[in-house]
Specification:
The chain has eight helices and seven strands; from the N terminus they run H-E-H-E-H-E-H-H-H-E-H-E-H-E-E. With 235 residues, it is an alpha/beta fold. It has one domain (15-103, 146-228): Rossmann fold (3-Layer(aba) Sandwich), CATH 3.40.50.150. Helix content is 35%, strand content 18%. It has helices spanning 15-25, 43-52, 73-83, 106-115, 125-141, 150-158, 173-179, 197-204, and strands at residues 31-35, 65-70, 90-94, 163-166, 185-189, 210-218, 221-228. Helix 1 packs parallel to helix 2 (43-52) and helix 4 packs antiparallel against helix 5 (125-141). Strand 4 (163-166), helix 7 and strand 5 (185-189) form a beta-alpha-beta unit.
Length: 235
């Protein structure tokens, strides 16, 4: 989907929606970060519904926080409208979630494409590289005042979230997830594609400190939900 394409991505009534809703409803989960929120009509709505199920959710002192990050200014404006009724606990951030130095090089993209069999193989590698170029060109067009490294800024102020949803750039996701290791739950969208394939396999590793609790398919692609091992119970 193009950066400025404001087409929605509703997942209402799907298993992905229900799975994310279940995670959001876990009583101990209070701080949420969604990387790549789009216009807020998809995963965001499941998160909000789950958060609203908690006592005193709409009170300023509830402790609930939802940080939604979106690169596209056009999508961000619609995201703000979606979040406005829940301003007591929701925050929309417009800019680059990552540090620009985290972007995969063209060589790294080609290596991934040719060495790993994923849904990325369904597209010519030049199409993927074009998406990378357009993303960087869009960021450059916004000038030096355009916010960058938002994820790290949120971490610095609010700490590690209870729930991290990874649905942002295909080209920075590995470093972004590494930054937030320690989150109680990590949700990976497109775990069968360039976006989160490596993250999915990293969390499957015996030394990751996480356990796979849910895996499925959706209109957004394959997805997986991991829970940190120190938690004994979950959704």
């Amino acid at each position: 989907m193009a950066i400025q394409d404001t087409t929605g991505a509703s997942i209402a009534g799907t298993q992905l929606y229900n799975d994310i809703l279940a995670v959001a409803m876990v009583a101990e989960n209070m701080k949420f970060i969604e990387v790549g929120a789009g216009i807020g009509d998809g995963i965001t709505r499941a998160l909000i519904r789950g958060m609203l199920s908690k006592p005193n959710a709409m009170n300023p002192g509830s402790g609930l926080q939802l940080h939604c990050i979106e690169l596209s200014e056009e999508k961000y404006q619609l995201l703000q409208s979606e979040l406005s009724p829940y301003g007591v606990f929701s925050f929309a951030h417009n800019g680059v979630s990552a540090d620009l130095s985290w972007y995969m090089s063209e060589e790294a993209v080609r290596e991934f494409y040719h060495s790993k069999k994923t849904r990325a193989s369904e597209r010519p590698v030049e199409v993927i590289l074009s998406s990378r170029s357009k993303e960087l060109e869009y960021i450059d067009s916004k000038g030096e005042s355009f916010s960058q490294n938002i994820l790290n800024e949120i971490k610095g102020v609010y700490g590690i979230p209870d729930v991290l949803v990874m649905n942002g750039s295909e080209f920075t996701s590995v470093q972004e997830m590494e930054l937030m290791i320690g989150a109680r739950y990590i949700v990976l969208i497109q775990n069968d594609n360039l976006k989160n394939y490596d993250n999915h396999n990293a969390l499957l590793g015996s030394e990751s400190g996480y356990r796979l609790v849910i895996e499925g398919q959706s209109r957004l692609g394959g997805y997986s939900i991991f829970r940190i091992l120190e938690l004994e119970e979950g959704p």
